[in-house]
From TrEMBL:
Lineage: Bacteria, Pseudomonadati, Pseudomonadota, Betaproteobacteria, Burkholderiales
GO terms assigned for molecular function: carbon-nitrogen ligase activity, with glutamine as amido-N-donor
InterPro entries the UniProt entry points to: Asn/Gln_tRNA_amidoTrase-B-like, GatB_Yqey_C_2, YqeY/Aim41, YqeY/Aim41_N
Protein name per Swiss-Prot or TrEMBL: GatB/YqeY domain-containing protein
Superkingdom: Bacteria
Length: 147
């Protein structure tokens, strides 16, 4: 389970006195615990992966804001957190792999144009969950449907 691996990594970070890594791992565990409490569940690997992906997305958004504001020091801190969090995500899909999944979903839907957007995104989202940025996937689907 991913949660066990995260806990072991937290212990290793404590032993190594790696304060930055430890801080990021603690934030991650707190976010997972919060989701478990909110939903009254024991988080599965898929749910933990969703939490991690959401945290990475938040940090990417923050980096853009910090860079726009001229705060490169804060952007670097956020990037360091992304590096730690990304270690727990499954291997990301390439643009070609995402394109093949999108083409398959379009073919299965039998629809064309923007009317197919929702149906195609639903099919693609299930196949790429945690392995691709959904904003990027959405843009690729839109490009394919309007082409």
């Amino acid at each position: 389970m991913i949660k066990e691996r995260i806990r072991e990594d937290m212990k290793a970070a404590m032993r190594a006195h790696d304060a930055d890594r430890l801080s990021t791992i603690r934030l991650l565990l707190a976010a997972v615990k919060q989701r478990e409490i909110d939903e009254k569940i024991e988080a599965t690997d898929a749910q933990v992966t969703e939490v991690i992906a959401k945290m990475v997305k938040q940090r990417r958004d923050s980096i853009q804001q910090y860079r726009a504001g001229g705060r490169e020091d804060l952007a670097q801190k956020e990037q360091a957190e992304i590096d730690v969090l990304s270690g727990y995500l499954p291997k990301q899909l390439s643009d070609e792999e995402i394109g093949a999944i999108i083409d398959e979903a379009i073919a299965q839907s039998g629809l064309s144009g923007m009317a197919a957007m929702g149906k195609v995104m639903g099919a693609v989202k299930a196949k790429v969950a945690g392995r691709a940025d959904l904003g990027k996937v959405s843009a690729l689907v839109k490009a394919r449907l309007t082409a």
